[in-house]
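Students often ask why we bother encoding 3D structure as a string. The short answer is that it lets us treat folding as translation between two languages. Here is a chain of 430 residues written in the first language.
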Amino acid sequence: MDNFINMLNAKVLPVANKVGTQRHMTAIRKGIISTLPLTIVGSFFTILNNMPIEAVANFLAPYAEILDVPFRYTVGILALYATFGIASSLAESYQLDKLTNGVLAVLAFLVSTAVPVHVTKNVSGVISSGRYINIANLSASSLFGSIITGLLTVEIFRYLKNRNITIKMPEGVPPEVSNSFVALVPAAVILVLFWGIRYLLDFNISSFLSTLLMPLKGVLVGNSLFGGLLTIFLITGFWTLGIHGAAIMDPVIRPFWEMSIAQNMSEFTSGTSAHNLSTIFTEQFLQWFIWIGGAGGTLALVVLFMFSKSTYLRDLGKLSLLPGLFNINEPIIFGAPIVMNPILGIPFIIGPLITGSLAYVLTITGVVPMMMARLPFTVPGPLGAFISTNWSVPALILSCVNFVIDLVIYYPFFKVFEKQQLRGIACLEY
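And here it is in the second language, the structure alphabet:
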């Protein structure tokens, strides 16, 4: 076991850390995560528009159309916001002007993704003549296009600036004015390039990437039990090695997660039952059914620690309870520790695989609905499961049952670890 751990430390960890901190991967992660407040707020309006209390639902029914607007301008154009965030983050890492690069990236994304539709005649009571764009093209379904345009825009800007292919203003000109003139040539190049790709070559970057990468979505995020368990295994496995599992997986899986929950929310808003949505293994599925107390389902371990015979474990459990209730488990992961600890690492990985399998079976059999909203990750598990599945009582019960399963799985390993701790103290006293 020691040789295996040493091998992981020597070969796997450096590679994983390098991938996780790579400039472009970091920009993608930061840019997409920057949209988190929007999707959470948009989810609240989805929930508000689907209240389970009949009196409240009847009261809000006349306002359904206007209550839908916040959803359309948050989740509905998610890729547009992500484009700005990704480009700004990458520009910052190069010490370039964030605002300029963010705006140019949005320009590139709109030109390459949102084709204007020219309506030449008024349709009485429906639409007036003019030019329109379909905001569905700016949703999470175009997220891969937003990633590519965001990254490429910054690289083009950097290339031109480093080779002085820009317009320079004399010293003394305010930075805001100077930056605007510096961006003139890059803006022209970026506009013509992405316009040419979309309209002259008739090539849709977002559609091409979505088609190309969709098989990967079926593996990591979707309705495949194997794919869901693989994701769970990788995240918990990285955590046991001392690496933030979700952070490592984010650049690969985050776009799929965002697309999936946005699609579920959109389908639900359009009238589809929560039992018949597109994706089971969304991030929220993991959050509310499996990560009870945080990755690895560690709230159960926190509770066991609170009643430990070891003073250290008991104090650690008490200190970790409040964060654990709100799904923050770094204190227990690094305090116990679970990192590089085979005794606690085994249930940390096995527990979520078992609870994830149970949740999957109950979902595909229709006992619990799929996730139709996105809440802050700090919402306690059972409550999050209850609200995010359209107020499903079976979902709330499942979250509680999975917590009990975690307790049962952790218990024998906890007792072994506790005995080890007490033996170590006894040896020190001796």
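Translate back mentally: Residues 426-430 have pLDDT under 50 and may be disordered. Keep this in mind for the problem set.
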